[in-house]
Amino acid sequence: MLSLKKYLTEGLLQFTILLSLIGVRVDVDTYLTSQLPPLREIILGPSSAYTQTQFHNLRNTLDGYGIHPKSIDLDNYFTARRLLSQVRALDRFQVPTTEVNAWLVHRDPEGSVSGSQPSSGLALESSSGLQDVTGPDNGVRESETEQGFSEDLEDLGAVAPPVSGDLTKETMTRLDRSSHGGGGHVKSSRPLNSLLAGHRVAQPPSAPGSRASVQDIDLIDILWRQDIDLGAGREVFDYSHRQKEQDVDKELRDGGEQADTWAGEGAEALARDLLVDGETGESFPAQVPGGEDQTALSLEECLRLLEATCPFGENAEFPANVASITEAVPSESEPPALQNSLLSPLLTGTESPFDLEQQWQDLMSIMEMQAMEVNTSASEILYNAPPGDPLSTNYSLAPNTPINQNVSLHQASLGGCSQDFSLFSPEVENLPVANSSTLLPLVPSNSTSLNSTFSSTNLAGLFFPPQLNGTANDTAGPELPDPLGGLLDEAMLDEISLMDLAIEEGFNPVQASQLEEEFDSDSGLSLDSSHSPSSLSSSEGSSSSSSSSSSSSSASSSASSSFSEEGAVGYSSDSETVDLEEAEGAVGYQPEYSKFCRMSYQDPSQLSCLPYLEHVGHNHTYNMAPSALDSADLPPPSTLKKGSKEKQADFLDKQMSRDEHRARAMKIPFTNDKIINLPVEEFNELLSKYQLSEAQLSLIRDIRRRGKNKMAAQNCRKRKLDTILNLERDVEDLQRDKARLLREKVEFLRSLRQMKQKVQSLYQEVFGRLRDENGRPYSPSQYALQYAGDGSVLLIPRTMADQQARRQERKPKDRRK
DNA sequence: AAAATGTGTCATAAA
DNA sequence: TTTTTATGACACATT
């Protein structure tokens, strides 16, 4: 009975997850409390009804595992596997950082497009006052939708009184999901990002779920980069502000929506739980939401991935259904088709050329991880809490908190797999543990990185190539050749040989220590590999980059006189930028290094040529500039309040430079951009066109001067940095050369010593065999062997030999003189 | 709170 | 001479 219960609960978890995927809402309590057989039947038998037979068959044939009744979980498992293979494929393709970002961004539109087709779930949700948000869900407004959405939130938030943090969070996530699935966002990552940020804020850092928050940071960073790529700024995700506002906003909706959507115990239970947790601040809000956050996210990510890679017709239904999980009326007709779409990716997954063993290991790592997290969080609730509530709570929670809780839904599902296995075949259960513990380290570097990311519950690691993970440039991909590897080896060899030499040959202590120092320094250099590779590799490209920079500098300076707009561009030649970006992307700079490069190689003038990007170049401003600009360009929907408008104005003001403020104050009729970047002639023409006061003129000239100087300073700093880096590289090269020369010297000394020893032994042998007329050996103290120039050997008295030796010693000195 | 870093500006020299 | 560029130095902001 106990096993049955366990099985039921676990299966129930899987099942609910699956159902949540499908978009069917089922009251689990009824099954759990009263009707066990039906539940079992649902889990075991009819699962085939939700899945397409062909996929099962295919899977079975490929995997070698028989069709398990609990195919739902297997579905999750295979979905995960497919995702894994996708991630691996990413890794394999060595997609550069920027490209991967683009990939994500492009993937979203697909999901949004597909999601925008069936907006049923959204329609349901919008009934509770979300129409503003979900109304423009045809992808027409795209990012604007999002903006309007957030602004709506802000607007509402200004009015709504704060209630329970958990409730708000939950509502927020639901809202976000609505915007996700049906909103037709080109960039669903933005709300996701902000929500994640919110999640991070809401979570107590000390709670067990804080692990997820760390990943969230990574994910946020990645997503943020996407957004930056698309022109959005981090400001969009200003957690501390937005989160609170949204929280409050959600409150508003929560009141109505929750009552609307969840009638019955589930809702009550949820509310109860949430409230209690929110007040007490117990483990639940951090743990369970955290865990389920991950789950939901990963599932959603799964869906998106699936959509991206398997643009089947049915896939179009995913987002909407996912979005409508909580609100959708359970419809029996839907699931099969949906299941079909759900499973279709599995086909491709099984088709993936990757090693089954490896995938299995990957999966095992996930399962292990899940076993830790889910068992401690979700299962706790499942098992320890009263029978009815927890399940319903879980059920309602998972679908309702898609974003923040996204992270672990995936794990939960995967974990469900492991649990399933354990249920059915203990030997299989053993496998994961053994594999994950023992085999993982042995897995090739690719999968190791993957596994590590998995085991660290790193969502970013789950869905992005390792290079992307958080610091992105932190670690060069395993495929990337370590330019310092050879050096390191060399240095180590050097050191070894040196020590060897010093020990064996009784090397001159001073010299030996010197050499040791040398090698130490050298090896220290190499040990600083985290730093060296970048500079080294950069040096490879940097010879070109430096040359290009020098050439471009001269060229630009010459060209600038003739064509000042180009001259304004100055050092920031495209080629150089590309070079360095390539180097950066390929080699994987150190974080600070990449920071350097980003800072230094951003083309300020180019940016300034694009007004909307003008402030991206400056770290101060680009945090808030894009959002401000966005909001400026796309005035929020009618619901905007004065407060937020003021905020917008503030943002605008903040984003504007001092000179821009001054120009505005002086009512200067053209843009600072023109003032600064126009060639002198055109600039003068422009001035002549207007009747400008003396103050205005002087301000304009100051603006021009300052603007040009600003760019000049940027170029100067960039150049300075280039110089420093080049010098650094040169120093490294020289140190390498020095080490090499020293090594060669040591080698020569060693061989010389060996030769001397050999000669000495030969000498003694020959001398020992010499006999005088009387057959007696010559005394070494009285005679010596003298090597003649022609190769002959003479036996001469010691005295003569000493004299000759002295002469020979003097001769070189004389020559020198 | 202090240090490190980034950025804008000014003064000045040079082209 | 005027304009532009380069650069050191400083102040301020951000991290």
From TrEMBL:
Residues 699-762 form the BZIP domain. It is a single-pass type II membrane protein; Single-pass type III membrane protein. It is found in: Endoplasmic reticulum membrane; Nucleus. GO terms for cellular component: endoplasmic reticulum membrane; nucleus. Residues 643-658 have a biased composition (Basic and acidic residues). SMART domains: BRLZ. GO terms for molecular function: DNA-binding transcription factor activity, RNA polymerase II-specific; lipid binding; RNA polymerase II cis-regulatory region sequence-specific DNA binding. Residues 717-758 form a coiled coil. InterPro entries: bZIP, bZIP_Maf, NFE2-like, TF_DNA-bd_sf. This is Endoplasmic reticulum membrane sensor NFE2L1. It comes from Sciurus carolinensis (Eastern gray squirrel). Belongs to the bZIP family. CNC subfamily. Residues 808-817 have a biased composition (Basic residues). Residues 108-152, 516-577, 627-658, 798-817 are annotated as: Disordered. Residues 116-131, 522-568 have a biased composition (Low complexity). Keywords: Activator, Cholesterol metabolism, Coiled coil, DNA-binding, Endoplasmic reticulum, Glycoprotein, Lipid metabolism, Lipid-binding, Membrane, Nucleus, Repressor, Signal-anchor, Steroid metabolism, Sterol metabolism, Transcription, Transcription regulation, Transmembrane, Transmembrane helix. Pfam families: bZIP_Maf.
